Amino acid sequence: MRKGLHNGAKDAFSVLVSSPILIDSHCHIVFRNFDDDLDEVAARWRQAGVASLLHACVEPAEIPAIRALADRFPELRYSVGVHPLDTQHWNPQTQSLLRDAALEDPRVVAIGELGLDLYRDSNLEQQLAVLRPQLDLATELDLPVIIHCRDAFDPMTLELRQRQKEGRCPRGVMHCWGGTTEDMEVCLDLGLYISFSGTVTFPKAEAIHACAREVPQNRFLVETDCPFLAPVPRRGKRNEPAYVEAVASRVAELRGESLALVASSSTANARRLFSLP
């Protein structure tokens, strides 16, 4: 337990020592639909054994508010970056802004959420123009990347493979995994981790189920991506960090392992990748 935790975090310690320790490796609690009950949400994630959270950033204007959340909740760490669907927020000063934000606060442990998304947009060249300087920044600062990749696996992995050949491919995670086992092997060969979200609990998500069964013990994370993608049986409702327990439970079921083992493995993996306390 880190020094300086406020009373709420200290009070949760008695719960955490008797529960599987979990890390929600990707969440967005800065969104307005958490404004009215965030203290209750925090009480629930602590009750569920969630000891750390990694808050993903989608565009620079979020950074001050996410930093304030890290002040409020000592178990929170965060990333800085620009989402592929937010390319309008990139300008010539953005890379420097992200660099300064990362260097100013040791609680910044990743660059992202960055990547490519050709499901909701078709501006591949514009997305690549925003992706590439962020990958460069991650390499410069020796920080991992949080990758969003939707309907863009080939161009995303082409970019990473070229960088791997040149010795400048950052470590990182494919967040909210939705690919096949063949795709997963490509990502593992690139040195990436695979993160499972609430989609792993969906009954028809057979490809994701197969990946959860086959992913190496030391290369997977669990996440909520809240407020999106609430797991079964809360599908369609607002997601929150406490529900990462349902994600871990389903991964454990698919792997034929105990929740305690999946929790300890995913927690160790997240701590290793993001240098979490």
From TrEMBL:
InterPro entries, A to Z: Deacylase_DTD3, DNase_TatD-rel_CS, Metal_Hydrolase, TatD-like, TatD/YcfH-like
Catalysis performed (reactions): D-tyrosyl-tRNA(Tyr) + H2O = D-tyrosine + tRNA(Tyr); a D-aminoacyl-tRNA + H2O = a tRNA + a D-alpha-amino acid + H(+)
Binding site for a divalent metal cation 1: H26, H28, E113, D225
Record-listed a divalent metal cation 2 binding positions: E113, H148, H175
Cofactor(s) needed by this chain: a divalent metal cation
Cofactor note: Binds 2 divalent metal cations per subunit.
Enzyme class: hydrolase
UniProt cross-references to Gene3D superfamilies, sorted A to Z: Metal-dependent hydrolases (3.20.20.140)
Keyword entries, A-Z: Hydrolase, Metal-binding
Signal peptide: none
Pfam families documented for this protein: TatD_DNase (PF01026)
Molecular functions (GO terms): D-tyrosyl-tRNA(Tyr) deacylase activity; DNA nuclease activity; metal ion binding
Domain of life: Bacteria
One BP term from GO: D-amino acid catabolic process
EC number: 3.1.1.96
Role description: Catalyzes the hydrolysis of D-tyrosyl-tRNA(Tyr).
The family this protein is said to belong to: Belongs to the metallo-dependent hydrolases superfamily. TatD-type hydrolase family. DTD3 subfamily.
Family matches, as NCBIfam families: YchF/TatD family DNA exonuclease
This protein's name: D-aminoacyl-tRNA deacylase
Organism: Prochlorococcus marinus (strain MIT 9303)
